[in-house]
Amino acid sequence: MATQLEPAVPREGTGRKKLLAAALDLFAERGVSGTSLQMIADALGVTKAAVYYHYKTKDDIVLAVVSPAIEELAAIAGEAERKRSRTAQVETVLVGIVDLIVRNRSLYAVLQGDLTAIHILREHGAFPELSNRILALIVGPDPDPGTIVAASILLSGLHEAGFGPRVAGIGDEELRGHMLDCARRLLRHRRPSAATA
Amino acid sequence: MATQLEPAVPREGTGRKKLLAAALDLFAERGVSGTSLQMIADALGVTKAAVYYHYKTKDDIVLAVVSPAIEELAAIAGEAERKRSRTAQVETVLVGIVDLIVRNRSLYAVLQGDLTAIHILREHGAFPELSNRILALIVGPDPDPGTIVAASILLSGLHEAGFGPRVAGIGDEELRGHMLDCARRLLRHRRPSAATA
DNA sequence: GTCTATACATGGATAGAC
DNA sequence: GTCTATCCATGTATAGAC
């Protein structure tokens, strides 16, 4: 189920968990390729070799950081695909993604925003068509261009809206509500779509 | 680092322009820090040193690539700030930005999406508060959180919506229309019920 | 003016001491 | 398990040949 309260990447803990938390902070601030293993080591007060003890490569760290979110996304997509009504599909995706973003604000920004991260995910076969699956769930079959544009703005806009300093002062519950509100406003197109077919 | 103005008259022509075009393509695809000078040189069929002949540093290339867009953004902000009605201010910003994005689809993605690029801009004093100026123009004075969220989604969503493969098949004029449509839908908020806060 | 050659730093990664 | 020392590739940048 998509409704759990813990962030995907724990902020406390020992060994790997602290490493992942530090890496996430740096990734979110500097980008993946703007973050060196040295920086991660420094943030933890250890040496590069200590980092390599936990993960064999930098790519592994990136994957470890983002894969919880990817798995959750996949679960959301799967859950939505099992719904039969279009309305329920869209709603499941929206609520699931917004929830995921709000629960761990910076993680999703890395996932969606960083081209290096996206390349790494592609190379390792993670989320190949997941992104398209989610878009398809939102726009439905035979979407008109206006819907595609709206969904694109929505999907890429949500991530920054969850992370940027602009919304830092807004509480989780309220942010969640506003995001869903925006999503519904964007997707409620007043075009009957009868014209095309 | 003296403020030596470069040979301001790019008389010999297409050298730099081709370089900037190649750099932009790579930045848009791999990100700034994922792009090496070697890649740029290879794309042009020259050597790294030839690239250094045109620009002294990599940062200079980044600045040269994005500064036309920044200047346009600044002009848009300035024009909007001179309008007296709020409606005209918002409209000027929206139309200006959407226009800029559509005219130049990948450039804006680099500008907004790449953390390395943003760091470079900050370090060189370019667009310090430009981003905040534009947000302020859109949300107006004393914005409620819902408006801030909507504007954040909009501003960060537009760039990917202008560049991503999803919209690649949509013509400029149509894309422009849909983007403006989305923007207006997002910003036309009904006030949240007073009970909540 | 353009490239060759190269300096110099950093980054990723490994072997092995403790 | 964690760190020291180190290797090697790459990246930025420069000096100087042509």
UniProtKB/TrEMBL annotation, chains A, B:
Claim: ATP-binding is one of the keywords in the record: no
Keyword Hydrolase in record: no
Keywords: DNA-binding, Transcription, Transcription regulation
GO MF term list: DNA-binding transcription factor activity; transcription cis-regulatory region binding
Span of domain HTH tetR-type: 13-73
Gene3D superfamilies (UniProt xref): Tetracycline Repressor, domain 2 (1.10.357.10)
Matching PROSITE patterns: HTH_TETR_2
Pfam families cross-referenced by the UniProt entry: TetR_N
Location of the DNA-binding region in this protein: 36-55
Top-rank taxon: Bacteria
InterPro entries: Homeodomain-like_sf, HTH-type_TetR-like_transc_reg, HTH_TetR
SUPFAM superfamilies: Homeodomain-like
Protein name: Regulatory protein TetR
Organism for this UniProt entry: Candidatus Protofrankia datiscae
